[in-house]
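Late entry, written up from scratch paper. The run itself happened at the end of the previous shift, but nothing got recorded in the book at the time, so transcribing now.
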Amino acid sequence: MTHDLVSRTQRNLDRIGFASLPKAIASSGEPGIRRFVEFFVVTIRNKNTRLAYAHAIRQFFAWTEARGVRSLDAIEPVVIAAYVEGHCGSPPTVKQHLAAIRMLFDWLVTGHVVQHNPATSVRGPKHVVRRGKTPVLTADEARQLLDSIDTSTVIGLRDRALIGVMIYTFARVSATVNMKVEDFYAEGKRWWLRLHEKGGKQHQVPAHHNADQYLDEYLTAAGIVAAKKSPLFRTIDRQGRMTEATLTRNGAFRMVKRRAAAAGLSRSITCHSFRATGITAYLENGGTLEKAQTIAAHESPRTTKLYDRSRDDVTIDEIERIII
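Output as recorded:
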């Protein structure tokens, strides 16, 4: 490889957490190396997916190298099946790793690096989910959390607004923290929220009157109403002053943990809990699954159902129907 290609390759590997090329890829020559790097930096646009797939591929090649498999031609279906069979992760994790391996080899096949995809015939573990595991707040608990936040400071107003947006729009934390000021906008007599979802999709949702109020009070206190292109949710420095930096997902996660603990709620609550909390409250109050799916921007109603905990409770009256 030329010096420039080596430098570009290493920079891209650093981006996805590879200290060096897997030996099987390095031995495939320049076309294989180029194709391997392109798989991550060209075909996968979502940063989180890219990192997850890179982790899966890194783990797979480390496993094969430890067993003396150091060329792409030596990776046969039985090798991948053995990796899947011996994987210590949960079924969803194993399925994700297999999907990453299958996609990588598809990319190598279309690039004429290998002749066939050895992962095509390998089946992953069966995994059927009918009920989500995300911790959910009741409507009263959600109200308790929102009311517990001290809104005499801009950080309190920001945190209440952020949590409110996630609850009232069923939004993912990534879509929420990546909003710009201009993504809270007026159209006619209503205010709307524009969310930037996975896959580059934009999703517009009418602003609930509570979310409308929370955002209006936060924006006014922060003094960023006119900064349309700037981040909506920003970090706060140690002096309590708002910066121009975007609040990260991890920053939002830590904030939610602190706020939940201060409100006396379960420490298991996460940012994703608000998605499930909003969907459950909506369905409990007569909302339809189809509309919930639309608000949440889910591709399938089956996904939306996983967030619905309105039918979780089994009453003692139902148990007493077991007459023996």
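The longest strand covers residues 190-196.
(Scratch paper discarded after transcription.)
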